[in-house]
Amino acid sequence: MDPLLILMLLAMGAFGGFAAGLLGIGGGMILVPFITMVLTARGVPETLVVHMAIATSLATIMFTSLSSVRAHHRHGAVLWRVVQLLAPGIVAGSMIGPWIGKQMDASTLAWFFGAFVAFSATQMLVNKKPAAARDLPGTGGMFAAGGLIGTLAGLVGAGGGFVSVPFMTWCGVRIHHAVATSAALGFPIALAGTVANVFYGWGEPGLPDYSLGFVYMPALLIIVAASVATAPLGARTAHKMPVRRLQKVFAVILYALAAYMFWRAA
User: Fold this and answer.
1) What is the pTM of this model?
2) pLDDT-based confidence at residue 249 (cuts at 50, 70, 90)
3) What is the DSSP secondary-structure string of 93-138?
4) Element (H, E) at 211
5) Going by C-beta distance under 8 Å and a sequence separation of 6 or more, which residues neighbour residue 160?
6) Half-sphere exposure of 8 (CA within 13 A, CB side)
7) Distance between CA atoms of 246 and 89, rounded to whole angstroms?
8) Which of 26, 81, 96, 224 is the most exposed place for a label (fewest CB within 10 A)?
């Protein structure tokens, strides 16, 4: 692999890992457009680029979530009972999301991803937290909520934080607990989604060398090496300082990345 591409992957891994720890977003919305650029530069067929970028991004979250959740757990911020209740639905949804993505052509998937990122950027920029309107639902409601979170996360290659954090806040969970718990939910999302992407992409014509289904292993390994180092830094920062100013910066970056995906889809 070209040394410049390796440096790009290291840089995006460091940035994505920090974002994952800081905001509980899994880093996927940042990583997918950049991985798309890298795979395009590697000559991967247009029909596979976005699918592989999403699958590879999702696989990185298995590692960044473990790294960031450890830092959140030290602060006692992870609500493990909530994780237990949401995880079954999340696993089911994270298997369904990649299947839905496979049914889409590359252009449609890029449009959907861009729209989701633009919506998430707006949510971050406005920073309007839903008022606590109720308590967390029972087992059935938590399974349904987890299913929706997992499906969206598996479809766009993200950790689900932009759905799970507002949901938990709406149900009366304090924001720091919601972010920390969202980071913990990233692992079952990523594990189930990665297994699905390996299965659905197995034997797909045109995959580059060193691919495991839709997951491009060289990019995965390089990004993980950087992101695991920076995710705890992001988590510590979330507990030490107001993150509002950084949220605005990330929102602008997300708008730019959404615009890139719209451009690719056009």
Assistant:
1) 0.86
2) confident
3) HHHHHHHHHHHS-HHHHHHHHHHHHHHHHHHHHH--PPP--S----
4) strand 211-212
5) 26, 90, 149, 150, 152, 153, 182, 185, 186, 189
6) 18
7) 31
8) 81
